Amino acid sequence: MAVVASAPGKVLITGGYLILERPNAGIVLSTNARFYAIVKPLHEEIKPDSWAWAWTDVKLTSPQLSRESMYKLSLKNLMLQCVSSSELRNPFVEQAVQYAVAAAHATFDKPKKDVLQKLLLQGLDITVLGSNDFYSYRNQIESCGLPLTPEALAMLPPFTSISFNTDDSNRGNYKPEVAKTGLGSSAAMTTAVVAALLHYLGVVDLSSLSGEKHKETNDSQDLDLVHIIAQSAHCIAQGKVGSGFDVSSAVYGSQRYVRFSPEVLSTAQNAAKVLPLQDFILDILKGKWDHERKRFSLPPLMTLLLGEPGTGGSSTPSMVGSVKKWQKSDPQKSHEMWIRLSEANFALETQLSMLSRLAEECWDVYKHVISTCSRLRSEKWVEQAKEPNQEVIIKALLGARGAMLDIRNHMRQMGEAAGIPIEPNSQTQLLDATMSMEGVLLAGVPGAGGFDAIFTVALGDSSSYIAKIWSSINVLALLVREDPYGVSLESGDPRIQEVSSAISSVHIE
Hints:
Elements (H helix, E strand, L loop, with lengths): L2 E12 L10 E17 L13 E8 L4 E8 L5 E3 L8 H17 L2 H12 L2 E7 L7 H6 L6 H5 L9 E3 L7 E3 L8 H16 L20 H18 L6 H8 L2 E4 L4 H12 L6 H5 L6 E4 L6 E7 L7 H14 L1 H31 L1 H11 L14 H31 L6 H11 L4 E5 L9 E6 L3 H10 L3 E2 L10 E3 L3 H4 L3 H4 L5
Helix pairs in contact: 1-5, 1-6, 5-6, 5-7, 6-7, 10-11, 10-13, 11-12, 11-13
C-alpha cells in the first residue's frame, strides 16, 4: 500500500538574518506549493532466503529531473550506499531515509522490530515530486511566445519537467539547470519524505492530517517526531545547523518561529562523522528541542503574491556568511542595526496581529475598509476613515506599511555594510513600484533577500490587477498563495489526480 505525504514551501516575511540567533523571531508563511513523497514496497513479497541478507534495496525516482537512483540499505548500520552509475545524488532524501529508518529502530520494541524488518526487506520505492511553483518556468513560457502571466503558468501540466543543460563535450554529462523561486524546496522535500516514511514504517500515524481533518490540529507528538527527524536530516544534508524555520513551517504550517539552540544538533553532526546513526539517534530524539512556534497567518481578505523578476535566484549560505563576517568585523554597528531591524520586525508582527483581531471584533467594518482600500493607493486610505473603528483599522494598515518600509531600509543598510545585495537596486525599484500600486499593503524581498521572487501582500481583490501591472514590466506573478497548513497525508498519487496544488486553489479571472 502506497503512502503519499506532502509538505509546503515557505515565504519568510520577517526575520531575515535575525532568525539565525535566538531569541529573535521570524514570521514564516507556508504556501500551497507542495512537495510530495510517495513511498511503497519495491518488491511484492519477501524471498524465502532474504532473512539472511544484510541489505535491502531502495529506489529513488525524481520524474521532473528524469532521474532514477538505486541504493542498498544496510540493515545492520542503516547506511545507504548508492549503486547507480549516476553521480547526481540527492543528499536530502538519502539522509531522510537513514534518519527515518533509524528512528523506527530506536523507538520499536522486539515484535515491532520484526515487522519493520519484514517491511524493509520488501525494499523501498520512493518518488519525489514538487509543485511547479518551486521552479522557474519563465524560459519555457517565453520560448512558447506566451505572455508572462499567471494564466500562461497555469497552462503548464502539473509537475512539468525541469530543463537540463547539456555539456556537448561529454554527452553523458547532464547538469540540471534548476532555476528556483526561493520557496525552500529542499526543506519541503525532506519533510515530505520523512513524513511519508515514518507513517509507512508505522512510527507515526498521520491519518488525522488528511483532507478536512487536517484543519483540526497541528499539535501532536507524531508531528513533533516528524519535525525532529526532518530537521536532523536536513541539517546533516546541508552540512550545517541552520535556523530551521523552513522545516518547521513545512511540518506545522504558517507560524511565528524562534530557532532551536544549535547545540541540540551540533553534537549529532560531530557524531555522524565517526559513529553509526543508531548510536546517537536516541540522543537527538530526547534532545532539548527548545524552538518556539506560535500559529500566525495573514489577516482575512489579504493575499500573499509572489513575483518572479527573472534575475535568477541567490545563494543564501554565501550571503549569510558575508553578514556573519561583517558582524565580527564591526560588532557595535552591527548590534545597533540588529536591534533596529528587530524592532521593525516586531512592529509589523504587532500590526498584522491587531488587524486579525479587528477582523474578529468588527467584521463588517473591517470588510468594508479592506474592500475600499483595495481600490486605492495607500496615500488615499486615511481619507476613508469616517468613524472610529474604520480609523483604527486604517491606522493599523498604515502602521504595517511603515514597519515594512523600515525593515527594507535596515536590510538595505545591512547589505551595503556587509557588501552583499540583500535588496539589490533592481529589486528596490520593483518593490517601490509595487508599494505604490492600488491595494498593496506590503512588498519585500523574502528571507535572506537577493534576486529571488519578491513577495507582496495585497488587499481584497487587487491581486489580479497587480499581476497585470507586473506582467507589463516583465515580472511573472506566480500562482503561489498562503496556505497555513503543514504536513498532510494525501489520498493518492497527485499525478493520477491531475490536480496541481497551485492551480486548484487559484481563481484566475
